[in-house]
Amino acid sequence: MTITLNLRNPLRAASWARIASWARGPTFARDIVIVLAIKFALLFALKLAFFNHPQAQHMSLPPEQVAQALLSVPASNPSEGDHHAR
């Protein structure tokens, strides 16, 4: 009578058992991972759909002009004046 043990890679069997138990049981960590994966996929799809390329090639501006438009302070209109003082 001989007993044979399959000890080729015990860590591999333990890791698969841990993954299988994680997938079966209702755990908070699993729910968080699933929700984060769905959010990441949706954000990636939105990025590809709306922010990857300009609508047309002629719509692109030089970076200097964009920076000036975003960072410049608009000039105040002196004809309006301070209406709260009147």
Helix content range of the residues, please? 55-70%
Mean pLDDT: 77
N-to-C order of helices and strands: HHH
Low-confidence stretches: none
Count of individual helical segments: 3
Range of strand content: under 5%
Q: Tally the beta strands.
A: 0
What report would you give on this structure?
InterPro entries: CydP (IPR054636). Keywords: Membrane, Transmembrane, Transmembrane helix. The protein has 86 residues and is mainly alpha-helical. The protein has a domain of 28 residues. Helices cover 56% and strands 0% of the residues. The longest helix is centred in the middle third of the chain and has 24 residues. It is elongated, with a radius of gyration of 30 Å. The N and C termini lie far apart (107 Å).
Brief overview, please?
With 86 residues, the chain is an all-alpha fold. The protein contains three helices and no strands. The radius of gyration is 30 Å and the shape is elongated.
Give the SSE map:
Blueprint: H1 10-24, H2 28-51, H3 63-71
Salient structural properties:
CydP; transmembrane helix; mainly alpha; 86 residues
